[in-house]
Design a protein that fits this description.
Two copies of one chain form a homodimer. With about 375 residues, the first copy, chain A, is of the alpha/beta class. Chain A contains 15 helices and 16 strands.
Chain lengths: ~375, ~375
């Protein structure tokens, strides 16, 4: 199937659409579970199918270091390797070389870095990243970009953005993979001017889709929402818009309302493994005292395998006893929660009731959230 | 359904039978996966159903310490708590108070011990253990027994065995739970005389079934097989025989051939979590070099979810990357392997070809096993 995107309905800035890929159709807005190393943590393909996942994200950076691109390629590509029959988007490796590896040298040609796994030295250029993403068999490849840390001077952000644009052009010119879409990444930090310049520069190169990168990296929430709104009003109407690294339930709803179509984030599964579960009342810690004897599931209205079969008391026990099943059941629930949220959003947009849906969800969701966020942050800090 | 047992076919000492319990029928010989803390490690009830498990074992000792018997009871009993619709056998807590806890005091009345979880002090008597097993809702309860360590003087083993018999009688007299079966535990170490005395004493009390305890605790393999043969020739033909704590593929086949009907063991899931996978060629370490690029599943003839969907190379990668999915996929495979082995054994016994089946399996299985066992033992020792 040829890659394509079609907007079928809008409601304010929010859009309902369909993305066509070589491995199937995706209804948007869509949340992509993150299979960083070729596995959504604690979750198998049968779980993903059952909870309604349609597209996964996987990381060129992690796969090139382990098991190696050539092994994944020999096994028939990333879909066959992890036995996932649906579409996969691969990130380019750009973000991780800056955030995870020990960066050795950044030049116009590319980036030299040391593996966070074994310290070995590696090199990525726009061309090499695309070659790897072709070998992985990604349905959607991302251009190699540079993701500046939050808090840099505007001049530094500008310089980095310009390199991202030059690399994007090299990717566009090097891209030959039949049936594979190529998305650009808008950068520019929290500067509206830089973001507009980045969007317009990349739009002039005509990519299959546009990602918004470099957000959710430490900037205040208001800045993230402001940049997302700006992009929702700027990026082409007929191309998919992918907000990278965003995926808390409240941010998903907020950013669907700002015109974003596709999302990925490790947060739902990461907080799940720490006992943090999404409910329509907000995030709760299932390993806390109130759940010790709760015969009901964590979220009564939830249709996931976990809530359909297990009490909150059982989940509480599994976390206390450090049983491995805890991580799978909690991850299934949180992924189903955000995927169902996207289903509900699509329904509301199609019916022209997205504002009411968004307000209802956000007002209910936030009641409990702040206390839980604080206690989870403390738990995380204690662990370090 | 009333508890009952029926032998439908024999082949040498091996037997094919059916066990009726309040939660369903079990074809024997049967292997019970171990849900020590109310969860088969890394495995959910949907997995257990798919891999053909029929009865689980759970531990009174662990559940009384966490989450507490009263919580499991409030949640509707152990089956509802873990969302497992089938039968459950509970161990009495006897073995663990000796092997896991800090033992404080052993008296005629019972055993006082400190929890391995939080150091709190607890007391178990034959009557209390049965009360707990009734509250848990076990389909089969076990008498509280004393399991002497391997290597004690015969006089000490004798003394311990006599107490086990007195406790068994108290259990028999205290047992009132409608629909719940009660099994006794034959003790007596590796002494044929003590074993025969233990069996005959307990048989005179007329239990619903007889377990063989105190084996696979460090004695030489020959001693274990010898005691099992002796029991296979001694215990009543019309009652189920449960060999406790035995569950390597080779021991299962050997002991089915010696007339045992039911088995439990944490070994299949424990070695799985360390990358040790059962194949018809023997146990292999999937995280070792030969599997790095193996496109085929670990065991081509296997019908489990893991082998039907994933290459050995993918499992190898998951173990190397320490992905949680590794533990589930490996555990599914090993449990399916031993459960299928019991299915094959039942088929062979019914056809009168058990000896040929046993010989074929054991000669193939042992080729690779010794080297792997050694390397896994080294790995385990390094971890301590």
């Amino acid at each position: 199937m040829r890659f394509g995107f079609q907007v079928n309905a809008t409601d304010g800035h929010a859009r309902v659409g369909v993305l066509n890929t070589a491995h199937g159709q995706i209804a948007t807005p869509a949340f992509m579970p993150v299979a960083t190393q070729g596995s959504v943590k604690a979750i198998a393909p049968d779980d993903l199918k059952a909870l309604g996942a349609t597209m996964l994200l996987s990381n060129t950076y992690h796969l090139m270091l382990r098991p190696g691109i050539e092994i994944v390629s020999k096994m028939g590509g990333i879909q066959d390797f992890m036995s996932w029959p649906g579409p996969v988007l691969t990130d380019s490796g750009g973000f991780q070389t800056f955030s995870l590896s020990r960066l050795k040298k950044l030049s116009e040609e590319g980036v030299t870095f040391r593996s966070h796994v074994d310290g070995s030295e590696h090199f990525l250029s726009p061309e090499i990243s695309l070659e790897y993403q072709a070998l992985l068999g990604a349905d959607i490849a991302m251009v190699l970009d540079e993701c500046p840390a939050y808090g840099l001077e505007e001049a530094q952000v500008h310089e980095s953005m310009d390199r991202t644009h030059r690399w994007a052009l090299r990717c566009k010119e090097a891209h030959r993979q039949e049936g594979q879409a190529l998305f650009a990444v808008v950068q520019g930090g929290v500067s509206p001017n830089l973001r507009l310049e980045s969007a317009s520069t990349l739009m002039s190169m005509d990519f299959d889709g546009y990602a918004v990168g470099g957000l959710s990296v430490g900037e205040p929430k208001a800045g993230m929402y402001q940049m997302t709104s700006l992009m929702g009003g700027t990026l082409p109407h007929d191309k998919p818009r992918y907000l990278m690294g965003v995926g808390s339930p409240e941010d998903l709803v907020e950013c669907v309302g700002r015109g974003m179509d596709v999302f990925d984030c490790a947060l739902p599964t990461r907080v799940a493994r720490n006992g943090g579960l999404f409910t329509y009342r907000g995030r709760v810690n299932v390993d806390s005292v109130p759940f010790r004897e709760q015969d009901k599931p964590v979220e009564e209205s939830c249709d996931c395998y976990t809530c359909q079969n297990f009490s909150a008391a059982y989940l509480h026990h599994l976390f206390k006893a450090k049983e491995l099943l805890a991580y799978r059941l909690a991850s299934i629930h949180n992924l189903r929660f955000v995927i169902r949220l996207m289903e509900e959003a699509r329904h509301a947009i199609a019916e022209g009731t997205f504002d009411a849906f968004s307000e209802r969800f956000l007002s209910g969701y936030r009641i409990a959230d702040e206390n839980v966020r604080r206690s989870q942050k403390e738990k995380w800090l204690r662990k370090r």
